[in-house]
Every structure is written in structure tokens, then in C-alpha cells.
Amino acid sequence: MCLCLGPVKSGKTFLMKRLQGDEIDNATHTVSTNGINLFTIKNTTGEFDMIIKEIGGSMAPIWKHYFKKTRKLIYVIDTSNLCQISAAGVLLYSLLVDPTLQNTKIALILNKMDLSYRQMRNEALLMLHYSRMQKEATQELTIFETSGMTGQGIEELRNWLFDPITLKAAINANK
Ligand SMILES: Nc1nc2c(ncn2[C@@H]2O[C@H](COP(=O)(O)OP(=O)(O)OP(=O)(O)O)[C@@H](O)[C@H]2O)c(=O)[nH]1
Ligand SMILES: [Mg+2]
Questions:
Q1: C-alpha distances in angstroms, 62 versus 5, 56, 86, 88, 137?
Q2: pLDDT (tens digit, 0 to 9) for every residue of the chain, 175 residues total?
Q3: How far, in Å, from the CA of 54 to the mean position of ligand 1?
Q4: Residue 84: CB partners within 8 Å, gap ≥ 6?
């Protein structure tokens, strides 16, 4: 199973819609997820589907009830919102130390890159204490720079979701 988590308004629903292949234009808007959204994502050849469960940021206190059997976790941060990044980092730390998530692969999404300026990526990683996080985490962390608005980074994220090792493990688990 794959989970998509991150603070309120970090752009999870928007990003998942884009990954799912929904039409996105200037008129597209989202409502805050007060519960769970399910998205069906196809791989590049359209052969496999993956279900991603987005849990709203307002539900952070109860995210942990959904951790069981999570193979992959997409953690979305609004990189343009400097006031929120440290809090997003603290929340992420609490996921990294959770015993249920020790074998989960994590995609750290620096989102809303369409609003970026030159140093945004570096500043965000500094505020997250990323180098320390990477040393201390038992999980494999991969960074993606994305925008649900422009589609930046979407295909890289899709390739991460459908990497052959994960697919093989999923097929074996269903045998
Ligand atoms: N510029 C820009 N705005 C974005 C992007 N992604 C989302 N937004 C805007 O950010 C707001 C929140 O996006 P959502 O996708 O609803 O955020 P969320 O993380 O699902 O929020 P919750 O469901 O409340 O946890 C919306 O108004 C979107 O239009 C992006 O990549 N670029
Ligand atoms: Mg949402």
C-alpha cells in the first residue's frame, strides 16, 4: 500500500490528481481533505495500477492508524511556505521513528516548485535538517522537486512508484 501524507495545503490532492492523469488547468481547485482520498495511478505502459491513499493534513494526529503494511510513503512539503517547513520536518521525524514504518521507502516531495526561487531547494533542505535526517533514518529517502501546477517531477515520481523491485515484491506478496 502507498500513503500520501504532509501538512495541510502542501498540495497532496493536486499532485495526486496530476499523477492520476486528471485534467489540470487554472480553474482546477481542490478542497481540503477532511478524511481520505483514494487515487488510482497507472504506470507508463498502463499495465499496472497502484492505489494511493491521501490522508488530509488536518488528520495528522491520527495518521498513525493507517501505517500498517505501508510499502511506500509520499511526504509532501510546500517548499514555498517557509513558515511551514520546520513544522513539516518535525512531523516527518515522527514518521521516521515510527516502528511500523521502518521498512517503508519514502519520497520526500519538495512541492510547488513553480513558485520557486534559486535557493529554494537548498533552504528547504537546511530547514528540514536533511543531512542529519538522512544519516539517522533507517528508511531509504529520495527527494523529488515537483509542481502539481506545471507537472514538474511527475514522471520521476511515477518511476519511483513503479520501480521493478517494488513491483516484484508486490507480486510475490500476492502469491
Ligand atoms: N502554485 C501552486 N499551487 C499549488 C500547487 N499544488 C497545490 N497548490 C494549491 O495549494 C492549495 C492546496 O492544495 P491541496 O492539494 O488541496 O493541498 P492538500 O495537501 O491536499 O491539503 P489537505 O487535504 O488539507 O491536507 C490549493 O489551493 C492548490 O491550488 C503547486 O504545485 N503550485
Ligand atoms: Mg488534500
A1: 11, 10, 20, 16, 22
A2: 899 999 999 999 999 999 999 988 777 888 999 999 999 999 988 888 999 999 999 999 999 999 999 999 999 999 999 899 999 999 999 999 999 999 999 999 999 999 988 889 999 999 999 999 999 999 999 999 999 999 999 999 999 999 887 667 666 765 5
A3: 13
A4: 7, 10, 77, 78
Could you tell me the three cell numbers for 75?
Answer: 511526504
- Using alpha carbons, list the distances in angstroms from residue 168 to 40, 72, 156, 164, 175: 19, 14, 19, 6, 11
**Which domains are assigned to the chain?**
2-174 (3.40.50.300)
The annotated binding site is made up of 6-13, 33, 57, 111-114
Ligand 1 pocket test: pick from 8, 19, 30 the residue with the most ligand atoms within 8 Å of its Cβ: 30
Answering whether pTM is above 0.90, one says yes
Is the Cα torsion angle 57, 62, 64, 70 positive or negative in sign?
negative
User: Does residue 114 have its Cβ closer than 6 Å to ligand 1?
Assistant: yes
